[in-house]
Description:
Number of domains: 2
Helix content: 25-40%
Strand content: 35-45%
Number of strands: 9
CATH class of the largest domain: Mainly Beta
Mean pLDDT: 84
Low-confidence stretches: none
Order of helices and strands: HHEEHEEEEEHEE
Largest sheet: 5 strands, antiparallel
Amino acid sequence: MTNSENVLKDLFVDSRSKRNLSIFYAFGMALLIYQAAVFHVFKIDEIETKHDIDSFELNFVESSESVDESRTVDDGEREVVTYDVSESMFQSNSGMGLLLINVAYGETSGEIADPCDTVTVDLVPNQVPADWNNAANVLTGTSDNCESISLQLMVFPEYSGSTTTVEGGTQQQWIQAWTNPDYGNGEFELGIEVNVNAPITSGIPTVQDSDEEVTITWEAVFFEVSVTQL
């Protein structure tokens, strides 16, 4: 019998050695069970956490620039009024959200029973970067009762001004996505046409109603975006 066989025989014959081996096996099994538990409970949670998608809340604080100007338009004529937003607004905000235009007028001939003239306005689509095809746009309007005409152009794509929750990416990536000084930077063009509705006294030589004064209010609405991880 070899020496190795004698050692193994002594281990299993001696009761104290058997007890030591049992303790060793029990300890080994406990260690394996512990490692398995750690993997399934802690490691799996860690792995799942790595695949979680971050969520962010986007908030918008608005500010605006408003400019008024008046223009007298002759009967049957069309005039184009232009507007450039101040460069400082682009420098101090994340972007331009939308453009609001209000056109107001009244019957100014001073003649008795002179009805309101018909005023038609349209914001001309041009090369200014904006969301020209947005369904919320109102680019044309007409009034024949001296009521104001309101137009609206959505400038920054997908901008609504409402708090929004988004998923994926990073905080910095969302800030960059909502920061762009190009949208709305350029010359907007508003066409204005007047058609005079003559008073009942129009046959009298001294009675004349050949034009109308309109007042245009341009309001450029800007926003500053803030992004918070949820």
